[in-house]
Every structure is written in C-alpha cells, then in structure tokens.
Amino acid sequence: MKPHLKITIRIFRIACFLLILTLLFAEISDVLVRKSLTEPWNMSVKVGGFYNEPKNSIDVMYFGSSHMYCSIDPQIVEDQTGLRSYILATQEQPIWISYYYMKEALKTQKPKIMVLEVNMMVEPKNVPKEGTLYSAMDPIPLSKNKIDMVFASVPKGERRNYIFNIMKYHGRWEELNLEDYKKDFKKKRDPYRGYVLLEPITPIESREDVANIMEIGQPLPKTMKYLQKIYELTNKENIKLILMKAPSNATKDEQVLYNAAWQFAKERNIAYVDYNQKYEELGLNLNEDFYDRRHLNYRGVQKLTPQFAAYLAANSI
Question: What is d(CA 287, CA 289) in angstroms, rounded to the nearest whole number?
Fold first, then answer.
C-alpha cells in the first residue's frame, strides 16, 4: 500500500474515532445533565422546545434575562398582530450570551424582528455565576455557537466543563430517573413559546421615580462590545432590532445603566422603549401586577403585552 494512502486511511480512522467519541459524550451528557422540567420554570422544554418549532415559522424572537421571559405572552402578540413569536431567554442572560443565542436561532429561523430586553446592562462581572452559565449553556446542542459562547463567557481552564458538561454532572448517576433516560422533553414544543406564566402576587409598597434620570452610565465594556455585535448581526441579516426594558421597578442607579442602552439605540437609529417610564400608560398596579419586586406576574403581562404588540406592529417595517 502506498505511504500516502496509509496516511489518508489513518487520518480517516482518527476522524471517525473522534466523531464517535464526541457523539458518545453528547449522548451521555444528555442523560446526565440536570433538567428543569417543573412548570412554570421548565426551561429545558422552553429553550429546548425552540428546536422543535417548524423551520422559518417565527416572525419575532425575544432574548434576554428572566425580565424577558416573564414579561411578554407570545400568544397575545400573535392574536393581536398575526406575528408569531418565541422567547429564547434564560436567567440573568448576559448580553454576550444573548448574542450567541441570536446566532443559534438564525440556524432555523428567519425572524423579521429581534427584541433584546436590556436588564443585563447592569451586569457587573465579566464572568457571571456558575448557575447562570449552566442554565444558559446546558440546553444548547454542541456546536460552534456553543463553543464560542463558552469561550466568550468562561475563563481558560474551566471551559471543558461547559463544552462537555458530563464533567459537571458525572456524579448524578444515582439521581437519574426514567425521564432522564427517555429524554421526551427534547421532542416537545412549549405551548407558551418560552413565556413563564407567574400567578402569585407580591404587593410593592413603592418604587423610585426614575423619570428624570438623564445621566448615562458606563456598563461593562464587554457588554457594550456585544451590544454592538448584536447590532451588526441584525443589520447584516436585515432584521429589525428593538431594545426594550420591561417594567422592573428600577432603581436610579440601574436607570443610569439602562440609559446607556437608550443612548446606544439613539446613535444607531434603533427602536428603544423603556417601560419603567410608562407605568401610568400601562395602568400597572403595584399591589396586583408583580410576582416579586423585579418581575411582572400574569396580570401585569396582560397589561404590557397588548401595548408592546402595538409597538411591534408599528415598528415591523
């Protein structure tokens, strides 16, 4: 056998071995990974279910932290505007992870509009909490986007634990149940399309008046870098970008950082709406419309969503 043919065969065998090893790791990881399957916080279904949506069936995609998935009901939007939408948000999702979530969404969807909730302009750290990272990365299949997301979020030396999360969850064997092995959640579609419906009420005694806060804060340079990358991505893909801040009883210090998003949008002619400035217009009731101090319950969502749906319709061209 010719030497060059031997080398080709050897390379082919090594490539096949690595492919089989990667698939095996992925399969075992799917079994071992900790799932979130209990409603309303069934994020394994809400994020994973996105991959089961029909290709090119989504008109509007929403990204961001819990302030996104607790604030908009896609069904109300569709009933009012005809725009079909999906929320691809995770707890405390940093702007740089939102960027890679957007790239992941574009593999199967061609939305007209992408909405980024800007609560995480207040993110103080380049590396968020471990739980925040795993909750965002675990539901994403192994791909270049996931690897890039890990490299953007995790320090060198720890990245393998997030790329191959079997290293994180290898001790879960005794906790596994039938659902872990069946993995039925990977075949499901979320009827709420990423929305987390919260019923409890927490009366809010008061909130700070942020209407006249004009100071522009300085978010993390990393946050601003990826906000720019989001702008460039949506511009390249001819997608309308909308920045929004959901009602969250913002403090004055937080509002200063949200104002940086407003300035960013103004300089680039991006649509921006801050609902911390629109409580009276929305008719929000501090005694009835919040799940906790930071998040709307479903009563608040029923007030916000029709207003935002009208805003979407007005900004859909």
Answer: 6
